[in-house]
Amino acid sequence: MGWITRNTGLAVGLGLLCAAGAPADAKSLRLNITADPSQMDPITESELIAGDIIRNMYEDLAGIDKDGKIIPVLATEWQAMDGGKTWRFKLRQGVKFHTGREMKAADVKRSFEALLTPALKPGASQVYLKDVVGAQDMLDGKATALAGVKVVDDTTVDITFNKPDVLFPIYPVRIFDADVLSHGADWFLKESAGTGPFQFVDWKRGSEVRVKAFPGYWGGAPKIDEVVFLVVPNIETSLSLYETKGLDLVEVPPSGTRAVLKDPRYENQTLRVPAAQINYLGMNQNLYAPFKDKRVREAINLAIDRDGFVKGILGGAGLPLYGSITPGVAGYAPVPKIPYDPERAKQLLAEAGFPGGKGLPPIDIQATAVQKDDLAAFADQFKKVLGMDVNVKVVERATHIKQMNAGEVAFFPWGWTADYPDALYFLSQLWDSRSPYNRVRWKNADYDKLIDQAQGEPNAEARYKIYAQAEKIILDDVGMAPLYIRTQIWLKQPNVKNVYLTPFRMLPYAKVEME
Amino acid sequence: MLTYVARRFAELVFVLVAVLILAFAASRLMPGDPIGAMLSDRSGDAALEQRLRAEYGLDAPVLQQFWIYVRGVARGEFGLSYRFVGVPVVEVLGDSLKISPLLALSALTLAVPLGVAAGALAALRHNRWTDTSVMAVMIAGISVPNFASAAFLVYLLAIRLGALPVAGWGTLQQTVLPVIVLALQPTAYIARLARTFMLEVLAQDYIRTARAKGMRERIVILRHALPNILVPLLTTIGIIFGTLLTSTFVVETIFNIPGLGRQAIQAIFARDYPVTIAVILLFTFFYAGINLLVDLLYGVIDPRIRLEARR
Description:
The complex is a heterodimer.
Chain A: H1 2-20, E1 28-33, H2 48-54, E2 62-64, E3 70-72, E4 75-81, E5 86-91, H3 105-115, H4 135-139, E6 149-153, E7 156-160, H5 187-190, E8 198-204, E9 208-213, E10 226-231, H6 235-243, E11 249-252, H7 254-262, E12 270-274, E13 277-283, H8 294-302, H9 306-312, E14 318-320, H10 342-351, E15 363-367, H11 372-386, E16 390-394, H12 397-405, E17 411-417, H13 424-430, H14 445-455, H15 460-476, E18 480-492, E19 496-497, E20 501-502, E21 505-506, E22 513-514
Parallel strand pairs in A: 1-10, 15-16
Antiparallel strand pairs in A: 2-3, 4-5, 5-7, 6-7, 8-9, 9-10, 11-18, 12-18, 13-17, 13-18, 14-18, 19-22, 20-21
Helix pairs in contact in A: 8-10, 14-15
Chain B: H1 2-29, H2 34-39, H3 46-55, H4 62-74, H5 89-93, H6 96-124, H7 129-143, H8 146-160, H9 172-202, H10 205-212, H11 217-254, H12 260-269, H13 273-301, H14 303-310
């Protein structure tokens, strides 16, 4: 019976393969994306899925290697001049665009200019160019050229800023052949204009995005023929496809991690890397009077069972977080562990005048529907340990974010993902009192001063020391309670080699080999 | 007859307009805001929000937005998608427009003959083991939700036996599983109805007369009994088609088919109002359209309706 089923299966399977007409020797790497990308070009690019695809076609001046270390990409070296107010970049020679033209220094200028041209509807990268001299004039429509970028010669370009921007070299800003803009707004469907290992082939909305190997890639032509990003919203379907070898890589979303981590078949096929994302519990002192007392904040901090949370709520796909920076991000340094100490927490709360939670006004803990379980776990924990009455409040996502950004949410768990590989991303955007994303509205003048200092310090080691000081200030004051880091989980078929998962998601698939 | 048809068409248009108003109102009353969804973590930048709101025409008063939308629809335009920068809704929907009704129709084509045959067979073997076992299978068919039967069939036929692809769209093989899964419940439902109707018909005087005249049993069943159960069954086809359309949401998600149902889910999550409203209108159109067709067919099959309409 066994062999009959097996052989019929094989016969039918072969039949299907022939029917589909797939060339048997084409090496294509197939992986899932959970939705269509919202954009497919380096100018309007704004979200995660778009970034995952575009990263394979378009490159930045610098990038990261598989260990998260910063490496030169389109620039071979860079140098701060004038106290960090100007950066000089030496460009890599012999880099070809997919269009066939060779990349020159003028292309850096033109790429930046496109990102500052409002008519082209630029997306998320624009913000990184805001401090370049003349950027505002372009945004206001007063200039069509970017004054702050000077082409010194074919391989040298100087970029000048209104104030020092020491991290500029690592910002994710794509360089492309701006000649293609003459094809109109949907040029990216007609032509591929990057320098990356793969070039655009086709986007069938709702089904797939296909990119093929670029033989002229400066880093060497990829050893696979193409990468296919299949739109598969449902993780169960992705797993079934993986099971039948219809997918070579699967990104497992949080909803699927439990099933995958428990399955012994997948044990040697999972990639696990902590994400460059911190998750914290926000306590807004302006909105809930007891939070003004540091002892109350500390009591909450000590009442969180981080290990239990990671195991129970995240199904093991995470790590407890004790600081404000995640490992694998430049500038990270270990910080002391925050113990789970219910006794000390109770004592602190009593000292603050709320023995057993008596006298604490009820409070809402707010987030989106996806985090329902997290909220319930927190509410339960704080009731149990501190006797605090916490109501779970679920709010629609966009509304929740808007309220947090406006400083209108008192108590919330939320995350923040780094867009570039430096700890300053977390420190400057989340806790600097001048940042719109300081959702807890924690305010500390010394902290802000350190951030300014760090932003003007071109020496990395010196800068990391400042980070440590700043991080200590917010942790000592319990300006928020660190919670956990999520682990990214991917499945990879055994025959696929050289796939690198980093804290910043997948590296481009330039070196992938398939046996 | 012609006035009847005209009246029914007017009703269809009325339903579509009513749904358009409701869908538009719902899209504006729903919590959440498409600009907020676009900016996600970055929302709160007032100047940027203002610029985007103006770009998408969301800064105008709601009534004016509605008027602009209706004028577009009248010209056959459904506006630009909020999620895909600058892409017309019609282009976003693209092929998915055909996929969902095609799936539902294929399932219906499979379910009707199968269901009628099973139901008739059960009725003819009334209270014998064939009847009991057919009905047991059919009750199971109704009770098992389609996501469960899908999971089971995928595991058995695709993963264990490798006989069919797990998911996807484009080849004939890829349509087999989703169509079977979609057809299961309606087949069972139709079988139960067919059995009841058949039992009723078999007890009628004209059947007894036919048999008394010495007609062969095959003729009695095929010529006299079967056509008479088709008329009441036809009425339910419209409803079944509606259920099938809704089931495509689930089945398209499980089998990863780029149809309207899956589009709708993506659009709703992204607060892509123009696409959402267009999908709702299309579903209404398919549903109302098939019901209209059924009613008209009903008139063709049953002379009494024709007569009534003439009066």
